[in-house]
Design a protein that fits this description.
The complex is a heterodimer of chains A (346) and B (343). With 346 residues, chain A is of the alpha/beta class. Chain A has twelve helices and twelve strands. Chain B has an eight-stranded mixed β-sheet with strand order 7-8-9-3-10-11-13-12, with helices on both faces. In chain B, strands 1, 2, 4, 5 and 6 form a five-stranded antiparallel β-sheet that branches. The chains are: A alpha/beta (346), B alpha/beta (343).
C-alpha cells in the first residue's frame, strides 16, 4: 500500500543533538539526544501525526525538517517535480528555494506573531522575503485572498495582533504559512493553546485547506484525540526515537508497543469513566539514561527484561502488509495481552 | 436542601456577581452564579476561557485582584467547623479569620505548577510553612515525618530527596504532585483545583486524576475541579456546572450531562471534541467568537452564537433555571419550549 504512493519527504536517520555545558567556562559536557536516528516517509496529500510526551523531541524533529535547528547528522530528501533533493547538505542560498515549499505553524499564537506588525505585514512578510512578487498591489491582493480563505475579515488586516483572540491569532499564523503556496506544512501543536470550541474551528479549517490545496501536513500533538482525528498515519515518539508507526486505525485499535498502550489508556474519555488503574512506573529521564544502550522505555515498561537493557530494538514489521512498524522486543506479548484486555472490556 | 441524600453542604455560593473595572470599562466576569458544594462531592466547572471559572474560584478565597468589585447581594457561605457559618465575601483583606480558613480548611491547587512556586525556597520550606501556620507542629522530626508521609502518598518516588530540592529541579508533573501534597497536608474540607492538569502530559494527567480521586475518598474532602476539558471532568466529577460568559447555563450530575445534554451550548461543546470514531466528518464548533465581556449581549448571553435561537425572546430577556430531572437544571428558552411541547 505504501510503495505506490508518492513520497514527498523522506527522513533518513535524522539526528539532532543539543550540547550541554558545565562549569563556569561552559565546557561541553555531552549531548542531549533530542532526535536520535529517526526514519520517516511522508506521503503527498497525507497527514502524518506525531505524538509523544513533552520533551520527547517531537518539536525538535519538526524544526529539524525546516533546518530551524541544525541537524547533527542524517539526510532529508525533499521531492520536487519528480526530483529528490537532499536539503540538509544544501547551502543557505540554495535552501531558500525549498523554504517556499515548507512552512510551519507554531504552537503558541501569543508568542509567534510580532506585536509591532499589522496583520497585513505579518502575512505579507514571507512574500517579501522569499516570494517573487514585487509590487505592493500584487502583494495586497494575495494577502487579502489568503486572509479570506482563513476566515479572517478584511478589516482585520490593518489591526495589530493584540486585538485578536487565540483562535483568530492562530488563523493569522495559518494564513502566513499558506501565503507562499507551500506543499508541506509542519503544524507544531497548533491547537493545544486553544479552547475546545476554537480548537474545532482550527481543525476544520486545516482539513478544508488540505483538501483545497492538496497540502501535506506533519501534525505534531500531545492530545491523542486530536491527532487521531486529523491524521492518516501516526508515529509515536519517546525520547528521540520512533516507537511505533502505522495507520491511525492500526495505532488506535491494535497498539503493539507498551508505550502506545500506556498513552492510549491515559486519554480521558468523555462518555465513560475509563481511567481506573494505571501501571505506574516512575519516569527516568536523565542525560545518562539517554546516552546508555538499550531500549529507552525500559524503566517504565511492564514487559522489560534483561535483553531490553542491552540492545535497543529497531523498528520491525509484524504483519505482512508492511504498514505497521514497532520497536519493541516483546511486541507479540503486548498483542496477546491487548487481546485479553479488550475481551475483558467487552 | 442541605440535608439532601444525607450529604451536608460545606460551601454555598449565592448570587455571586463580580465586575472588574478596567481602563476600557467595566468587565462583568461573573453574573449571578449559585451552587452548593456537598461533603465528599466533586463539582466540575467547565467553560471556555473568559467564562468566569477562575474568577468564581478565586472569590471563594478572597484572591481577586484590586480592581474587582463583588456585588452586595453575593454570598459565599462556609461552614467553619469551630466558628460556625461565615460569609467569606464579608471578610476584609486582613481579617484574622482568613488565616484559619485559607490553606487550612480550604486549599487551592493552581493551574501552572511552574509559576506557583517561588524558586528560592526548597520544597521542605513550603511544607514547614504550612505546618507552622496551621498545624502548629514545632517538633522538627515530627514535621519531617509528617511531610514525607504526604509526599509518598502522592506518589513521589524519592520523598527524602525531593524534600531538599528546589522547585526548578522537579518536572511539571512532580511539581503538581508536590502542590497537591501541600494542599492536602492540613486535611482541608474543600480543595479548589483550578485546571490542575492542563499543563501536563496525558500519562501524568491520568496519574494526577487517579491520585486526586483516591485521596478524596481517603480523606472525605470536597473538591471543586475547574477545567475546559470535558474528558477530564468526566473522569473525576460527580456534578458539573457549565459556564458561559459568567453564568451557569446547565447544571447536573456528570452522567446526565454527558449522556443527555439539554442546553445548546453544552451540546456544541460536547460535539466539538474530536473523537477517533467520528473522523472524516467536520466537528461542530460554536459559530463566531466569544463576545467581548466589555459589551455583554443582552438577554441570554449565548444568543449571538446559538443555533436554536428564538428571535424576539432570547435577545430580550434572560431565561431562568428549569429543573429537568433531579439535580439537572438548564437555563434556556428553547429547552423550555421543547419541554412544553413534549408535555
Amino acid at each position: 500500500m505504501y510503495e505506490n504512493k508518492d513520497v514527498l519527504l523522506s527522513i533518513k536517520d535524522l539526528k539532532v543533538y543539543y550540547s550541554t555545558s558545565k562549569g563556569i567556562f561552559k565546557n561541553s559536557a555531552g549531548y542531549i539526544k533530542a532526535v536520535d536516528g529517526v526514519n520517516l516517509n511522508i506521503y503527498r496529500g497525507q497527514t502524518l501525526g506525531l505524538v509523544g510526551e513533552s520533551g520527547c523531541g517531537k518539536t525538535t524533529l519538526g524544526k529539524g525538517i525546516l533546518k530551524l535547528v541544525k541537524p547533527f547528522g542524517g539526510n532529508i530528501y525533499f521531492n520536487i517535480d519528480g526530483n529528490s533533493h537532499d536539503t540538509i547538505n544544501l547551502h543557505e542560498k540554495e535552501f531558500r528555494s525549498f523554504r517556499k515549499q515548507v512552512q510551519m505553524i507554531f504552537q503558541d499564537p501569543y508568542a509567534s506573531l510580532n506585536p509591532r506588525m499589522t496583520v497585513r505585514d505579518i502575512i505579507a512578510e514571507p512574500l517579501i522575503c522569499l516570494g517573487s512578487m514585487k509590487s505592493t498591489n500584487e502583494i495586497d491582493k494575495k494577502v487579502y485572498e489568503v486572509a479570506v480563505m482563513c476566515n479572517l475579515h478584511p478589516e482585520h488586516l490593518s489591526r495589530f495582533p493584540h486585538a485578536f483572540s487565540g483562535g483568530q491569532r492562530q488563523r493569522i499564523a495559518i494564513a502566513r504559512a499558506l501565503v507562499l503556496n507551500p506543499s508541506f506544512i509542519v503544524c507544531d501543536e497548533p491547537v493545544s493553546a486553544l479552547d475546545v470550541s476554537t480548537q474545532a474551528n482550527i481543525l476544520n479549517l486545516l482539513i478544508k485547506l488540505k483538501k483545497d490545496f492538496g497540502l501535506t501536513y506533519l501534525f505534531i500533538g500531545h492530545d491523542l484525540n486530536v491527532v487521531a482525528y486529523i491524521s492518516d498515519i501516526v508515529a509515536v515518539m519517546h525520547i528521540g526515537k520512533i516507537m511505533e508507526i502505522g495507520t491511525t486505525d492500526d495505532i488506535f485499535n491494535n497498539p503493539t508497543h507498551p508505550y502506545t498502550r500506556l498513552l492510549l489508556r491515559s486519554v480521558p474519555d468523555v462518555d465513560k469513566e475509563n481511567i481506573k488503574k494505571l501501571r505506574m512506573f516512575s519516569r527516568a529521564f536523565s542525560e545518562k539514561f539517554t546516552n546508555s544502550h538499550g531500549c529507552n522505555f525500559r524503566s517504565r515498561c511492564e514487559y522489560a527484561k534483561e535483553i531490553c537493557n542491552k540492545t535497543a530494538p529497531s523498528l520491525r514489521t509484524l504483519n505482512s502488509k508492511n504498514e505497521h512498524f514497532v520497536a519493541c522486543n516483546f511486541a507479540e506479548d503486548v498483542i496477546v495481552s491487548e487481546y485479553f484486555y479488550k475481551k475483558k472490556a467487552v | 436542601m442541605s440535608s439532601e441524600q444525607g450529604y451536608e453542604t460545606v460551601l454555598e455560593i449565592k448570587d455571586l456577581g463580580i465586575s472588574f473595572s478596567t481602563d476600557e470599562g467595566d468587565v462583568r466576569a461573573v453574573n449571578g452564579v449559585s451552587f452548593a458544594l456537598k461533603k465528599g462531592i466533586t463539582l466540575g466547572i467547565v467553560g471556555e476561557s473568559g467564562s468566569g471559572k477562575t474568577a468564581t474560584t478565586q472569590s471563594i478565597l478572597g484572591l481577586l485582584s484590586e480592581n474587582a468589585r463583588i456585588d452586595n447581594c453575593s454570598k459565599v457561605i462556609f461552614k467553619h467547623p469551630q466558628k460556625g457559618i461565615i460569609d467569606l465575601i464579608k471578610l476584609g483583606k486582613n481579617d484574622t479569620n482568613w488565616s484559619d480558613i485559607r490553606g487550612r480548611y480550604i486549599s487551592m491547587v493552581f493551574q501552572e505548577p511552574s509559576a506557583s512556586f517561588s524558586p528560592i525556597y526548597r520544597i521542605r520550606d513550603y511544607f514547614y510553612e504550612t505546618m507552622d501556620l496551621h498545624l502548629k507542629i514545632k517538633d522538627k522530626n515530627k514535621r519531617e515525618e509528617f511531610s514525607l508521609e504526604m509526599l509518598s502518598k502522592v506518589g513521589i518516588p524519592d520523598p527524602k530527596g525531593c524534600f531538599g530540592r528546589y522547585p526548578f529541579e522537579l518536572s511539571g508533573g512532580m511539581k503538581q504532585r508536590v502542590m497537591i501534597a501541600i494542599a492536602l497536608l492540613t486535611h482541608p474540607l474543600v480543595v479548589i483545583a483550578d485546571e490542575p492538569t492542563s499543563a501536563l502530559d496525558v500519562v501524568v494527567q491520568a496519574q494526577i486524576l487517579l491520585l486526586l480521586r483516591k485521596l478524596q475518598q481517603d480523606l472525605g474532602m470536597s473538591l471543586i475541579f475547574v477545567s475546559h476539558d470535558f474528558g477530564v471532568i468526566r473522569q473525576i466529577a460527580d456534578e458539573v456546572a457549565i459556564m458561559y460568559l459568567g453564568e451557569v447555563v446547565e447544571y447536573g450530575s456528570i452522567k446526565q450531562i454527558t449522556a443527555s445534554p439539554f442546553h445548546p451550548y453544552t451540546k456544541l461543546l460536547l460535539g466539538a471534541i474530536p473523537r477517533f470514531e467520528h473522523r472524516n466528518t467536520f466537528l461542530s464548533s460554536v459559530p463566531g467568537d466569544i463576545p467581548s465581556p466589555l459589551n455583554r449581549p443582552s438577554g441570554c448571553p449565548l444568543h449571538t452564537r446559538c443555533p436554536s435561537i428564538i428571535k424576539g425572546l432570547c435577545d430580550k430577556s434572560s431565561p431562568n433555571f428549569l429543573t429537568i430531572k433531579g439535580k439537572h437544571k438548564v437555563r434556556c428558552f428553547f429547552c423550555e419550549k421543547l419541554m412544553k411541547e413534549g408535555n
